[in-house]
Amino acid sequence: MILTVTSFLFFTALVGVLTWWITRRDDHDSSQGYFLAGRSLTFPLIAGSLLLTNLSTEQMVGLNGAAFTDGLCVMVWEVVAVVALVFMAWFFLPRFLKSGVATVPQYLEIRFDHQTQVITNLIFLLAYVGILLPIILYTGATGMIGILDVPAMLGSLPDRLGMEPQTAALWLIVWAVGIVGSIYALFGGLRTVAVSDTLNGVGLLVGGFLITGFALSHLGGDGGVTAGARLLATQQRDRFNSIGGPGSSVPFGTIFSGIFLLNLFYWTTNQQIIQRTFGASSLAEGQKGVLLTGAFKLLGPLYLVLPGMIAYSMFAGEEIKADQAYGLLVNRVLPPAFTGFFAAAMIGAILSSFNSALNSACTLFSLGLYKNVVNPKANETQVVRSGKVFGWTVAVVAMGIAPLLANTTSIFGYLQKMNGMYFIPIFAVVLVGMVTRRVPAVAAKIGLLAGFTIIAVGYFVPPFDTIVASLHEYHFLGLVFAWLVVLMLIIGELRPRETEFTQRDVKAVDMTPWSLAQPAGLVLVVIVVLIYACFADFSILETTP
User: What is the pTM assigned to this prediction?
Assistant: First the structure.
């Protein structure tokens, strides 16, 4: 236990010290430096930050938990993301960088009007505070409890406080991680977040592959990794299928509706993720960073899906929740020294997603609401300070909500469901804004409000929730998206803008594209298709759920 805790503290402190050293002379006082890293990010930092912001505990714990239940088919969340990243590099990123924006709502203000920007800001902020930040903290705490056996470390303290050991550990880790993550995000700005993300990313990738290797070796006994892999393939032959059956959480047909749309939004329009691409030093650097992220995502199933399937074999017959499987696996198979290292990497992953989301929330509030609505005459110092004050407020609220998610059946499924409420309408409006020139601002406002309302009603209001459940929620999201696009196009025909929208290049960065962006993207798409083809067994679609 001492070795585990010592190595954990050492690696956690090492990342903090290196991050401070690298960013100690950065501009943290101006909005350009604080929110956009002075537009100085190169492709390694962009790729590292993108990867780890995504690769957090809702992925490590949640997606492996989904694999524990459904098998290989849940790799769709990783593999389809590669296609979305190609679209980001080819189509979306050039348009964002050309306008020199710091946030997605700012782009919508340029394309439509100020009210559209305010509505989008509010939707983003509500989603981050009420959905994303609490889920990041909860899944992180759940993973850490299993890896470090925190309830045992607390001894008799929970009893003296009148709390269950699991509950006490959950609250302790949520608040500890929340406070540290807030310090990263609110005192350092985007470049500090990007650097810490990249450093932690190395540790998490190494740790993720170590988990898979040690788990296969544990499963194979004296035969090692090779024997474990053969045993896993034999025991779960039917579960090694890239095609989700009718009864799985990701039926095959949903790949082409809600799942693809959720991935497109996530990697092309989600402020928390794409903000580091807005800080790219040039379009070419941004494209290289995005496509490098896509290449890394191809490896995702090896450490985000396979461990969950191994846990299924190891813990067969034991009554454990799916979201507990990954933490228990790590605790079971890793030696103490490696356990401390991986716990530090997991903490890094939690901090990465938390501080990235928090930094994005501050950016949306400061530049979108405070500067544009509350105090238009605010100077640079006031804008940055407003973001920090707002960030601390949001962090405290998220830390209070996170432990209340303990009764959720599948945290990854819950996250995707909640994401749909704001992913779909915002993505529909951004896409229509980019591909049309005459659709007016009123269409965007109707699309945002109608989409958010319809999806919320479909999820939570009887009898509509029953209808959505029978249809499958991802198909429902696809239908809502198509309806929103058609609605906005009809409004554009009936009440078009007086003049066509023309995007202006503000010369924020060099807009020369990377010469290999097109072929590199095509190679990634071909690999995605081949991965699916190698593991596809369509006979499962004939099975009645």
Answer: 0.81
Distances (CA, A) of 456 to 196, 413, 459, 473, 498: 36, 16, 5, 11, 34
Cα dist from 350 to 31, 81, 140, 144, 385, whole Å = 25, 20, 6, 10, 25
Q: Tokens 């090779």 correspond to what residue?
A: 226
Which residues are within 8 A (CB) of 381 and not within 5 positions of it... i.e. 6 or more apart? 29
For 11-20+28-501, give the CATH class.
mainly alpha
Residue 364 CB: number of other CB atoms within 10 A? 30
CA separation, residue 107 to residues 306, 419, 532 (Å) = 39, 21, 35
Q: Delimit the domains of the chain by residue range.
A: 11-20+28-501
Peptide bond into 463 cis (omega under 30): yes
**H-type alpha helices, 89-128:** 93-99, 104-111, 114-127
Q: What are phi and psi of 282, to 5 degrees?
A: -165, 165
Q: What is the DSSP secondary structure assignment for residue 73, as one 8-state letter?
A: G
| Mean pLDDT, residues 531-536 | 91
pLDDT tens, residue by residue, 343-390: 777 777 777 777 777 877 887 788 778 888 888 888 878 887 888 888
**CA-CA distance, 352 to 145, in Å (whole number)?**
19
* Tokens describing residue 534: 């190698």
- What span, in angstroms and rounded, lies between the C-alpha atoms of 346 and 57? 7
Task: Give the residue among 276, 296, 140, 282 at the shortest CA–CA distance from 205.
Answer: 296
Angle, vertex CA 487, rays to CA 482 and CA 492, nearest 5: 125
The secondary structure of 160-195 as a DSSP string is HHT--HHHHHHHHHHHHHHHHHHHHHHHH-HHHHHH
Three-state DSSP at 282 gives: strand
Query: Is residue 201 a contact partner of residue 55, using CB atoms and an 8 Å limit?
Result: yes
Burial 134-152 (b: 16+ CB within 10 A, else e): bbbbbbbbbbbbbbbbbbe
- How many angstroms separate the CA atoms of 132 and 270, rounded? 12
Distance in angstroms (rounded) separating the CA atoms of residues 193 and 35: 10
Round to whole Å and give the CA distance between 105 and 55.
25
Residue in the block written with tokens 């040690």:
214
pLDDT digits (tens, 9 = 90+) for 447-480: 999 999 999 999 889 988 888 888 888 889 999 9
Helix or strand or coil: residue 511?
coil
Q: From CA 92, how far away is CA 95, in angstroms rounded? A: 5
Q: Give yes or no for a contact between 323 and 329, defined as CB atoms under 8 angstroms apart.
A: no
CA distance 279 to 70: 38
Q: Which amino acid is at 462?
A: P
Q: What is the pLDDT of residues 120-145, one digit of tens each?
A: 988 888 888 888 888 888 877 877 77
Alpha-carbon gap, residue 110 to 117, rounded angstroms: 9
> What does the alpha-carbon distance between residue 514 and residue 500 come to, in Å, rounded to a whole number?
29
